[in-house]
Structure formats: C-alpha cells, structure tokens
C-alpha cells in the first residue's frame, strides 16, 4: 500500500510542490488521476471523505489523515518527515509560491493573457518576485544539498516554471541567478530527478487548460 494518495490533475504546477516534498521524504504515493479526483471534487460535501473545494488533496493512508490546501499539505509533510527547517521561512515561501502561481495563471484562468497585461506582468511583477527570492537566497540561508521545505518549494516553483516554459529561463537568470542555480541543483538531486522522470508525461505541460495556451502564445511571440 502506498504511504499517500495524492489527488491532483495530471499537470506539474501546484502539484509539483507536494511531489518534490514527497520525493525528498522518500515516501511513496499514488495519484488516481482526473476521473477519481472529479468524483471526489463534485460529491456533496457531506459525502466527501474530507470536505474540499479544489485539489490538491492528500490522504495519508497510514494515519488515515486527509488534508486539503497545498500550504497545509506541505507543512504537514514537512513536520512528519523532518523537512520543515525554519517553519516561518518555509510557510512564507509556500505562500509566495501560491501567490505566484495564481498570478501567472491570471487567477487560475479567470482571464486569458493578452499582450499588454503579459508585458506588464513579465516586465515588473514577475521579475520582482524573482528579485525578492534572490534577495532571500543571497543571505546564504538555503542549502540545495540538504533541502528542506524552503529549498524544495523554491525549486518546485522556479525550476518547474522555467523547465516547462523555457522562454522564462532568461528572466530568471537575469533577476535571480542564485535561485536559478539552487532550483536546478535541487531538481537534479537523485530523489527529485528520479521522481521527475517517473512522473513525467508527454502532454503534462505546465498549468493546463486555455490559460496555458495563452501563456505559451505570449512566450512564442514576445513582440
Ligand atoms: N488554495 C488552493 C487552491 C486550489 C486550486 O485552485 N486548485 C486548482 C488547480 S491548481 C483547481 O483545481 N481549481 C478548481 C476549482 O477551484 O474548482 C490550494 O492551495 O490548494
């Protein structure tokens, strides 16, 4: 029996933050896929095994503990597997990651990207997020070789973004070279690298849906 079941869409995006932590913890987990997730998500709250609005949803099978909301899941796993590090920095970065993922998808696809909005975001707000993390990393507080939640979150956020959307790599190199190096190094650690190969699927993309198509359209035609 796997240690955990992770209900999430077959995309990297928010799910990779949890997958990085599970992989580094040496845990094993299964992912039942979109149909099983939809069945749980659309059930009346009283019939859900654990009431939740949107995935990710984690079932710790040994403890029969259910958790929703990505930050709560990550903090739980960090505590359980001794990966939390400084909890305040960890939670701060997990919350930053949530904000950044919300912003890069224009509130989960509420609106599609259009040129003016993308130019503004990719010219100011996204670089500023990168610079903020660079300023945190410049203090030397992160260690890619023994990653805790802070390093795993930074890597799952930034490595996934520039790996899946290579047009953004130059922006990260310019504004956050230390974070870029850290993210690449964490992603190449044996447990993480193995998970990335095992998990990958040819059509997994980044965040999925029409919003991913609109993001890719912006990156394909930068003018
Ligand atoms: N705050 C939630 C956000 C969850 C969320 O928005 N999940 C997206 C996928 S990344 C979703 O499936 N949304 C569908 C919905 O809201 O119905 C978390 O951090 O877990």
Can you describe what's shown?
The chain is 60% helix and 6% strand. By secondary structure, the chain is α+β, with helices and mostly antiparallel strands. It folds into two domains: 78 residues, Glutaredoxin, CATH 3.40.30.10; 134 residues, Glutathione S-transferase Yfyf (Class Pi), Chain A, domain 2, CATH 1.20.1050.10. A four-stranded mixed beta sheet has the order 2-1-3-4. Strand 1, helix 1 and strand 2 form a beta-alpha-beta unit. The relative contact order is 0.14. The site of glutathione has 10 residues, from loops.
Topology (SSEs and partners):
Blueprint: E1 4-7, H1 15-25, E2 29-30, H2 34-41, E3 57-60, E4 65-68, H3 70-81, H4 87-104, H5 106-109, H6 115-138, H7 149-164, H8 169-175, H9 177-187, H10 190-199, H11 209-220
Parallel strand pairs: 1-2
Antiparallel strand pairs: 1-3, 3-4
Helix pairs in contact: 1-3, 1-7, 1-10, 3-4, 4-7, 7-9, 8-9
Bound molecules: glutathione.
Glutathione binds at residues 13-14, 53-56, 69-70, 98, 108.
